[in-house]
Sequence to fold (242 residues):
Amino acid sequence: MQKRSVVAVIAAALGLLGIFDVILGPVLIHLGWITPLFGFQWFFLLGLLEGLVALLVGLLALWLTRAGSGRGGRTLAWIGTGAGVALLALLVVVARPGADLPRINDITTDTADPPSFVAALEVPENRDRDMAYPAGFAEQVKAGYPDLAPIRVSGSPAEVVERARTTAEALGWEIVDVDAEAGRLEARQVSRLFMFVDDVVVRVRPRAGGSLVDVRSKSRDGRGDLGANAARIRQFTAELPR
Fold:
């Protein structure tokens, strides 16, 4: 009877544990038992790391359990390797969109004079945070997202604020505050999987022949956003009636 390879057992255990952690993180977040950032870092990312280790250990286990080696557990070696490959593919899918983007999480169409949050400052999660635009982000926004720019539209600021509200609601944003007189709309959007919250402010100012719209989208957690905030601004820009 062949003796089961301990390395193969470890590979399978790591692979299955990695898959379990990757799934468990979002589940616990949606149940409200852990915060989005904790679930992402200590379950999802940890699961991906376990998968990478499982892949390496699994490949070693496949060699150790090769024909004629006298060691059993080749099925376990394949389980560990397969789980590792799956988790590595998931890592590529998650990380690839933001691979070449700056690690910042506060994006705006006006880096010289970014719109300011007002209503978002009163949210308990933001009360101890500095919501001013971070020094040094402006140049990174220009380099990473050169296409973002103020939006020129027809109509008075009050009319455009209402258009902005309709557009934001159509995009699934949760409206937090609307001040047509001040030309400001604030909203938030929650990501589906990890429930990360991003605060958004839309500023509308008069210009010759219409209004000028600027948008700022800021994540509450993490340092980078994998381009999520810029994508939100681009989508709003494309959908806002001119």
About this structure: The CA atoms of residues 160 and 204 lie 7 Å apart. The first strand starts at residue 3 and ends at 4. The first helix runs from residue 6 to 31. The chain has a mean pLDDT of 94.
